Amino acid sequence: MRAATAAxxxxxxxxxxxxxxxxxASTAHPAFGQHTTGFAGGxxxxxxxxxxSNFQSISGSWTMPxxxxxxxxxxxxxxxxxxxxxxxxxxxxxxxxxxxxxxxxLSAWYEMYPAAPVYFNDQVNSGDSFTGSVTTDGxxxxxxxxxxxxxxxxxxxxQQLDGQDxxxxxxxxxxxxSYPSFNQxxxxxxxxxxxxxxxxxxxxxxxxxxTETALQGGSxxxxxxxxxxxxxxxxxxxxxxxxxx
Length: 245
Hints:
This protein is mainly β. Helices cover 4% and strands 42% of the residues.
C-alpha cells in the first residue's frame, strides 16, 4: 500500500461523508487491488469472484485467523469488494496482516483503488469476526462499511469513483505475493445484490499457496493448498488487467 501524500490524504478526507471514520496513515506497501495472474501458480487473489454487470452490493463476514510470519515481506488481507476482475478500479474493505516488523500486525482498512488504502484507528485482534459491505447507487457513489462484531465497532464512509461495477468478490490477497501461514480462514453469509453468493454463479480463484473449499450457502473456507476437497467453477484466466507492481 503506497504511502499517501498529504495532498492525497486531504482529498480523501474531503470526500468522506458526514460520518467520518477514524483514520490512520497508510504504510509503504503495494496497494490491494486488481486481479492479476502468474503468482505461485495462481493469482494474487484467492476465493470467489462473480463477473457480469450491474453489481450494486456485496456483504460478507469472516474471522481473522491466528497467523505465523514467515518473512518480513508477508502481507495479506481478506476483503470484500466490487470491481477489480477485468476493470481498472476496486472498491473494497478488509483487514490486513502485515509482517514487516517480524510479528503480525492487524489493521482495518478500505480502499478506492487505484488510490492508496485508508486505515481505521480501531483495535483489531486475531480471532475477531468482521462484516464488510460495499454498496453503490450505480452513479459512482460507494458506501463502504466494516464492523468488528467481536469488539463492537463500526466504520462507514461514502466515496466517489468512476467504477464499472462488473465484478463482486470475497477473497484473500497478498500484494507482496508473500503470505504468512494460517490454518483456515472462514467466509460466511456472503451476499451479492441481496442474494446468496451461490445464486450469482461466482468462480473460484486459487492464490497458489491457499485454495478455497466449495461455496455453500454463501460460505466457504480458505485453507492451505492441497487441504481442500474438489470444488466447481474454477476461474482459469482474468479479463485483461494491468499488473499493479
